[in-house]
Design a protein that fits this description.
With 70 residues, this protein is mainly beta. The chain has no helices and seven strands.
């Protein structure tokens, strides 16, 4: 299982963006879903932030949780 820790999050329009720890796996893997706290999401690429991942929707604070790539 490959996972990265969420170190920050913020909202932009209809997206919630998760900032991941340095040297995250987000650009190194091929994945279609991500799982945070047993909930699966369809991720959206964040081109200008290599250590970030976004989802459509508004979620409560998940800082300190882990993103698993499915």
């Amino acid at each position: 299982m490959v996972r990265d820790k969420i170190i920050d999050q913020f909202k932009i329009d209809k997206y919630t963006v998760f900032c991941l720890e340095n040297d995250s796996h987000v650009l190194k893997l091929s994945y279609k879903k991500c799982r945070i706290k047993d909930v699966e999401y369809t991720p959206v690429s964040v081109m200008d932030a290599p250590n970030a991942i976004a989802i459509v929707g508004d979620v409560n604070n998940l800082i300190g949780q882990f993103v698993e790539y499915v």
